[in-house]
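We emphasize that the prediction below concerns an isolated chain of 363 residues; any contacts that depend on oligomerization or on bound cofactors are therefore not represented. The input was used exactly as deposited, without trimming of termini.
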Amino acid sequence: MARVVFDRVTKNFGDVVAVRDLSLEVEDGEFVVLVGPSGSGKTTALRLLAGLEALTSGEIHVGDRVVDRLPPRDRDIAMVFQDYALYPQMTVYQNLAFGLKMRKMPKDEIERRVRRAAEMLDIVELLQRKPRALSGGQRQRVALGRALVREPKAFLMDEPLSNLDAKLRVQTRSEIKHLQQQVGTTTVYVTHDQVEAMTMGDRVAVMSEGVLEQVGDPRTVYGQPANVFVAGFIGSPAMSFANVQATRNGDALTLARGELSLKIAASRFPDVPPQVILGVRPEHAQLWRDGEGLLGPIAGRTEFVELLGRETLVGVVTAGELHFTVLAEPDTTTKPGEQVRFGLEPGHLHLFDTATERALATV
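Result of the prediction step, given as a token string:
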């Protein structure tokens, strides 16, 4: 086990900057998830750590060693790939043992490690099968086992669940997290799925176009997004945004655009620019009933209704063409095209700078 450090790491592919000045510390035994859309640089960062790509500048540390110029085999890390990368002609046992045999490890030690990994992953009964006789979930467990037997300083996982169906992904992500907690190995996990990131990571590192936008524990990244990109990417359904005018009058802050006008007690917040971006998550926007504790009402037309079982999401567009996703009760009878009213929950409205898109305040 070891601490992993990216120290101002940059990777260029010709004129394209895939990773820009990345500085990130992963503590010993920590599970950190790199998350972002396609092209954000998350997989390139992982490949730089693995030694599968060469740095343009910066340093990468694993434990007390700078590993930039070391070949992958000398970095003492184990990687789990998206496509499993199992040897089809070998049994599960042989797949698990192959890397250890290549390192000329004693047979009894190979047996101990393979058996231990198989028991932890509940694949003992599969040891004599070949990959073609396994389900997708079983193949993923074997791929994890092949990394586990190495007993490396760090696990690297590149979207290992993307080939599984939705139900199996949920099951397997909990298994991976439980396994990592058992062995305590430093883990860097890459995914484009923000739900995976939020449910698995001790900390989440959000990337966009090669830049680390924000890193923090899931609750902080969700509740205190650093900018518009993080606010819109983390959370499902996504946060709703609207460009509004902000006017300070004594201890009150008024946010307005067209027929939308929200007056908020904001004595403890600093002044904000006259134009801001308002962001609100669906759970903090609710259909208007008695209006208790909500800001509003705000009138609009229903665009869509999504029944999710225990709750319903309603898309609403206001007269000023502002679009909001609003939470409703499961038994709501609202239909597309109908007029509705909704309110916003004070204390959960995010304000962002229109020029920089950086977070200003939560009111």
